[in-house]
Design a protein that fits this description.
single chain; about 475 residues; Alpha-Beta Plaits; 2 domains; six-stranded mixed beta sheet; four-stranded antiparallel beta sheet; about 20% strand; disordered N terminus
Length: about 475
């Protein structure tokens, strides 16, 4: 049966003629999603076989794959009757599509991204990252969850309501989310009128756990900077000069060690800390989900969720120094480290960088010359969770998860494009949803999608369409 044709038993229930979405409507939508699943999965696997790694400087990944991925997404949307264009504003290609619903109905904008992270070391994968493979109810492969399953969840909602859309729908599938969405501000500036909506569904997050849906309501902001320490104008023999002269790497290590206090809290003063609504999340769950080694102590103070979602965190993510294999008996003259700082959702990331820079420059480590250079920042996000659209979103998730009410959760990571949408469309309800779960391992080896949870996510989005359409009527 073509994707746009509703079975008779579903078509008879699909139109919601009053202001209520009944259990029968939900059951019909669930049945339709289940019927569509084989084709949806086929389309997901086909899209996931395209190695659309958007990092242009990474050897071995032809950027033509990203163009091919955009064309594939565009073809999928055109097959559902959308008017589609591929836009490129100095970066990777994004896909914008639109299809009209009833006159006067609300407009829903659906966001996902078709670019993916590189797979990393192939030896870490249990199967080919570019050949989606099912094991124990999960589909494994790069991008199958982050975020090509989000693309197909949007298509599922369109296919369920094909021929009888209860809302106007705009789809925006970005092509460079994994490399910072640098051209997104230009896209929003030049194409923003095409993307304007009453509700924006950003399918790039996850759920609380398998069987427990969630809406992501807070995200931390991001600061990345390079710290460089200089102690010599050239390298010298460690035997002849070691003792009175410091080397740059030891000096850098001493400087970086000042960034945390004895308990592991970030030592940079005056950074903002937020609060969270506590959920049931204990140390045992954190250890199980993170893979931290036995015996390694947790750092910082406050509840675990405060430390994950609302307090600043700082990590050293890279160092420029000779490798162990290439090391010689030389005092290193210059060494650099890249630091990544997550800041509270309401923190100004540029202010946070200035606090970090000023703190590091104030540390006198053997008189070394220190420079701190900002590489990038990204704002956090805190959703307004009141209003009828949020109410309908909660109800749609509960419908899809058999009555299990969604939780409102934070995410410790940063998704700067969410704040960009909130700033460009301040009157829209921003709904951050997703298909991931704690075992997804997005960005890591053996990334996977829990197929039953994905089915529920497809149902939830289709039910949301019906509920928003019923609000209008």
């Amino acid at each position: 049966m073509p994707s746009g044709q509703l079975p008779a038993e579903v078509a008879s229930l699909a139109p919601v003629t009053d202001h209520t979405v009944t259990p029968d409507h939900v059951a019909a939508i669930r049945a339709r999603v289940r019927e569509l699943l084989p084709q949806l999965r086929h389309d997901l696997e086909e899209l996931s076989r395209i190695p659309s790694v958007s990092l242009e400087t990474l050897d071995g990944y032809d950027q033509a794959h990203v163009d091919r991925s955009a064309e594939h997404v565009a073809a999928l949307l055109r097959a559902e009757g959308l008017t589609v264009e591929i836009v490129r504003e100095g970066g990777q290609p994004a896909v914008i599509g639109h299809i009209a619903g009833p006159s006067g109905a609300p407009t829903v904008m659906l966001y996902a991204h078709h670019d993916v992270q590189p797979p990393g070391d192939p030896a870490g994968w249990d199967s080919d990252p570019w050949e989606p493979t099912e094991r124990d109810g999960r589909l494994y492969g790069r991008g199958v969850a982050d975020d090509k399953a989000g693309v197909l969840a949007h298509l599922a909602a369109l296919r369920v309501h094909a021929g009888a859309l209860p809302v106007n729908v705009t789809v925006f599938v970005e092509g460079e989310e994994e490399v910072g969405s640098e051209s997104l501000p230009t896209i929003l500036e030049r194409h923003g009128d095409k993307l304007r909506a009453d509700a924006i569904v950003l399918a790039d997050s996850g759920n609380w756990e398998i069987g427990q849906p969630a809406l992501t309501t807070t995200l931390r902001g991001l600061v990345r900077a390079v710290v460089t320490v200089s102690v010599l104008d050239h390298g010298v023999h460690s035997g002849m000069f070691g003792g009175p002269l410091p080397d740059a790497l030891t000096t850098l290590c001493r400087l970086l060690a000042t960034l945390h206090d004895a308990d592991g809290n970030v030592a940079v003063p005056d950074l903002v800390s937020g609060t969270v609504d506590e959920l049931d999340y204990d140390e045992a769950r954190l250890r199980a989900e993170s893979g931290v080694l036995d015996g390694v102590q947790l750092i910082g103070s406050g509840s675990i969720l405060e430390r994950l979602w609302a307090k600043p965190a700082l990590s050293v993510i890279g160092i420029n120094a000779p490798t162990v294999e290439d090391a010689s008996n030389t005092l290193i003259p210059v060494a650099s480290a890249k630091v990544s700082m997550r800041v509270a959702p309401h923190e100004d990331p540029d202010r946070a960088f200035e606090l970090l820079r000023d703190y590091l420059l104030a540390q006198d480590v053997w008189g070394a010359t220190v420079t701190v250079t900002k590489t990038d920042t990204g704002p956090g996000f805190s959703a307004k969770t009141d209003g009828p659209i949020y109410d309908e979103a909660r109800a749609a998730l509960a419908d899809a998860w058999d009555g299990t009410e969604p939780v409102e959760m934070g995410v410790g990571g940063s998704i700067p494009f969410v704040a960009a949408f909130a700033a460009r469309f301040p009157d829209a309800a921003i709904l951050v949803t997703g298909v991931e779960d704690p075992d997804t391992r997005a960005h890591g080896t053996n990334e996977s999608l829990h197929l039953d949870e994905w089915e529920r996510a497809c149902v939830a989005e289709a039910v949301l369409f019906a509920r928003l359409g019923a609000m209008h009527r």
